[in-house]
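Please, structure for the following, as tokens.
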Amino acid sequence: MNSVGVKYGGFCRVLYVVCLGQLTSFSMALMSFNSSLSANLGVNAPFTLSFFSYLALTLVFGSILLYRRQKLQISWYWYVLIAFVDVQGNYLVNKAYQFSSITSVTLLDCWTVVWVIILTWLFLGTKYSLWQFFGAALCVTGLCLVLLSDSGVGGGGGSNPILGDILVIAGTCFFAASNVGEEFCVKKVGRIEVITMFGLFGMLVSVVEMALFERKNLESVSWSPEVILTFVGYGIAGSMFYSLTPLVLQASGATLFNLSLLTADMWTVVIRVFLYHQKVDWLYYVSFLLVGIGLVVYSKTDKYSNELPKLEDGDTDQLSRLLPEEAVRV
């Protein structure tokens, strides 16, 4: 009976984590869909799109933080840095929809995995096996096929697909830096404080850059119910994604999280074929296969390599590698 109970409990936990991961993946696909739809409607305001996601995070989690009357455990300027980096990543990826197809953008988003490996290896001392590097190499090979398709060999969609692909790859660099910093903070002080400050400063950075770079674009927008719905939809999807990501990481680690996000690419293919009525080149299917195999190989051999080790009693050297001593108030 005990063994049956343990197996049943384990099955329920796996089912819970899988469903949670798929909600995260689905919210990511919804972000891509709304951003791409906004670009198709002639709206060029990527900072404004991101603003609504950060606003929703601030309102929801900020209320919880205020209710708890909790003091910050990490200095505010680290949250400013993480938020600034994430806003730039969102800008570049959302901007890419002006030039490339939704399928290319979401596939190339997988570059984030490669940058995370590099950053965690350089700054956090994470060690990776040869199998993990092999899996990452398969992902890069699959992503190169997307670039090959978009260069004209396979006929990728968009007005300037190569420029769009470059913007996405640049955006994933910022996302990787933001993700590594956010994950470190979440595992030290909890997700409520991190998401609240992340949303607050992300919102403030977005407002500043909206005023500097998007004021004329917003004035020229022909506002319609469809345009307004894309902003609302992106805000809801973005807040869902940022809220669920820490839960998935805490419940399952990076392994199932990466596998779950892989299905977001499949959701976008469904959107592209059935809603946009666009044809998908055969190179995309090969790319899907290689990226899928690569992520499975990488994740299968990932034994919490992307998770930050907890501080041991009296061990302050590990924390000081990323944060100065005065930045963390225990």
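The two ends are 44 Å apart (CA to CA). Confidence is low (pLDDT under 50) at residues 304-330.
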